[in-house]
Amino acid sequence: MEGQKNNNNNNSIERVVSQKAIQMGSSFPCQICVVGFLCGVCLTSLFLAALTSFGTFQLGPISFSSTMLFSVAASDSSSSSGNSTSHDHIVTHSECDFKLKQAEQLSESNSNNEGDEDERVSLLYSAWNAELTKSKTGGGGNYLMKDGVNVPDIPNAPHLENCKAKTKLYGRLDQRTGNESFPPWTSWKGFLDTHPVASSIEQIKELKYQAVSEGTYPPWIAGSDEENYPMTRKVQRDIWIHQHPVDCRDPNVKFLVADWERLPGFGIGAQIAGMCGLLAIAISEGRVLVANYYNRADHDGCKASSRSSWSCYFFPETSQECRQRAFELMKSEEARNNGIVTIKESYTSKHIWAGPTPRKWGAPWSYLQPTTDVNGSLLVSHRKMDRRWWRAQAVRYLMRFPTEYTCNLLNEARHAAFGTIAAKMVIESLAGGWPKQQSGEKERSEINEYVWSNHKPWIPRPLLSMHVRMGDKACEMKVVEFEGYMELADRIRRHFPNLNNIWLSTEMQEVIEKTKKYPHWNFHYTKVRRQARANMSMANYEASLGRETSTNYPLVNFLMAVDSDFFVGALGSTWSFLIDGMRNTGGKVMAGYLSVNKDRFW
Predict the structure, then answer these.
(1) Is residue 106 one of the residues assigned to a domain?
(2) Any domain includes 250
(3) Which residue, 157, 263, 386, 486, has most beta carbons within 10 Å?
(4) Which element (helix H / strand E) includes 568?
(5) Other CB atoms closer than 10 Å to residue 278's CB: what's the count?
(6) Are residues 468 and 572 in the same domain?
(7) Is residue 308 part of a domain?
């Protein structure tokens, strides 16, 4: 009895000790001690083995798992239980070698997986790049075959547009069909209006014609009336009708033919502002504006008839029939004397740059929504409200549809900035092991072709566009350092904490260098040589880049800014002024605009 009692006491003590050991073994400090103890045992045994065998050894990376720590704790508690069958756990040389090799294999496996994904991302990026080249030049197929990638197996590039298809659609939406009074502007959006059922069912055709004849608005305006400047959709419709008379040879149709400004001191913004003034004159006088020589399009990138023409970058301001008629009348002295056709030189600079805004639509600028922030306060009114409203309408019309050339420029810019991010996103979304698992066929469906094709190309959103104007602009406005722009960016971010990406446009290299001071932001910008010194004039800087580059990259930045979710700029800059106008006629009024200064004329 007494022996049994002693055994029971011993068993109770063992259970208590065992439970205590397990609790200690599961605690973090104990686990640290066990790791240290195990490392010491391994190193000691290896050292003794080396002394006894006079051999050499090499230590590799050692990895311990939570299960390994638990096993050691359980082993220790078991050895402390006092059972006659228990024995001490001895870490042998072979066990250490096994753990070392296992850790090395796991590390190599993880490294290989990461390396394999990086290779696939790089391959997909290169495949998209080859497709871009092919769309422009007709080449690129050999490159893809060389890497074992078939064109039908290339996943869709979400950040790229089908420029040929989009340009064809824009052409359809910018001209009348047959004897109809309007282009096919219907409630069926974009490519969906080209679906076979749209033209095969007579009732649908009649309803669509009724919608157009009753005043459907043009398709290049996004958003509701509240999301745009007042009357934007009606004004855009009326400008298109004014610029596209049904019969250009009607004796009552008059013209204003004008070259774009080309003095060396005029930047792109000033040229566009001047043409906005000429469009105002044309509408007020009942003339069709015909824009002629555009010096910035006088380069090898603009082919055939689009060379030296605005139509290299955007759809022309009027129809080809009206252009031909206007140039015919230019040769007639009688037409010029009778005022049937006028030219830019027929008007004073003051009339062009500061002339009256067309009053055809009343005074909609008098009730603009105050969504522009300057120095922490909303700008409610100023003495140039009419000019701000009109330039926004005019530039929206002149840039209503980009050409295939401009579409390709935007594709290249998005691919350079976001292509790797997009490739990683697509690779992670694929269930199979692209490019090894290939179907050999492109996925085709009507919803892809007619519905989803109308969506804008992917960019990382939300995206903030920032135009930092410095350099020789100091003679015209208050110049603010980059830090001032970033303060405004941080203000936006405090309200929208998911904002991480900035599309940066600037002519100054020092601004690009300063982005390194803001590692918590992702900066994207075009890769172009920038000014190294602030006292260099914009004209000299553009001349150093060449005409093609100095025209293409600003227009890309302009359109990227228009498409961004937020915008920070300087109202004293004509370029920022026009970007703001495009955004306010593109459904972005309620996104607001933070400016580092006021316009110099207000």
Answers:
(1) no
(2) yes
(3) 157
(4) strand 566-569
(5) 26
(6) yes
(7) yes
In whole angstroms, give the CA distance from residue 279 to residue 273: 10
Task: Say how far apart CA 405 and CA 358 lie, in whole Å.
Answer: 32
Domain extent for 553: 463-595
| Helix residue ranges, H only, 147-248 | 163-173, 196-200, 202-213, 232-243
pLDDT at 176: 85
| Cis amide prior to 251 (ω within 30 degrees) | no
Rounded distance between C-alpha atoms, residue 369 and residue 590, angstroms: 9
E strands in 366-507: 372-374, 377-378, 463-468, 501-506
Q: What per-residue confidence (pLDDT) applies to 264?
A: 76
The model's pTM is: 0.79
Q: Is residue 221 part of a domain?
A: no
Task: Give the start-end residues of each E strand in 196-327.
Answer: 254-258, 287-291
Contact 562, 314 (CB under 8 A): no
pLDDT at 146: 58
CATH number of the structural domain spanning residue 519: 3.40.50.11350
The answer to whether 468 touches 568, Cβ cutoff 8 Å, is no
The answer to whether residues 235 and 364 belong to one domain is yes
Residues of the chain with pLDDT under 50: 1-6, 8-30, 34-35, 50-91, 140
Boundary (domain end) residue, out of 358, 388, 418? 388
> What pLDDT score was predicted for residue 108?
53
Confidence (pLDDT) at 258: 97
Query: CA–CA separation, 545 vs 541, rounded Å?
Result: 7
For residue 54, the model assigns a pLDDT of 41
What is the spatial distance between Cα 291 and Cα 259, in angstroms, rounded to a whole number?
A: 6
Contact criterion met (CB below 8 Å) for 246 and 324: no
Cα–Cα distance, 444 to 258 (Å, whole number): 47
SS3 594: strand
Domains held by the chain: number:
2
**220: its two tokens:** 């290049």
Cβ-based neighbour number of residue 225 at 10 Å: 14
